[in-house]
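Q: Could you predict the 3D structure of Gibberellin-regulated protein 8-like isoform X2?
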Amino acid sequence: MKLIVIQFFIISLLLTSSFFEISSADSSCGGKCTVRCSKNDRQHEECIKDCNICCQKCNNCVPSGTYGNRDECPCYRDMKNSKGGSKCP
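A: Sure. Here are the predicted structure tokens for Gibberellin-regulated protein 8-like isoform X2:
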């Protein structure tokens, strides 16, 4: 019985620490991506999703403004989708 309780405690601790790491990464990118995608009416949710992926892969770097300024973040600028186009909005 003690073994089950210990296993449950360890699993809970691991899940909780992973959750906080993911949440903090999302929150640092979330605000930047909200601004970046604010004028994208047709595909807003897709823009936010792609921006967050790019932001996390590029160490929280998102170009300023809603369009352009890609030279501020070369990693963000150079990421490509499966068709060879720009992955990041």
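Q: Anything worth pointing out?
A: Residues 17-25 have pLDDT under 50 and may be disordered.
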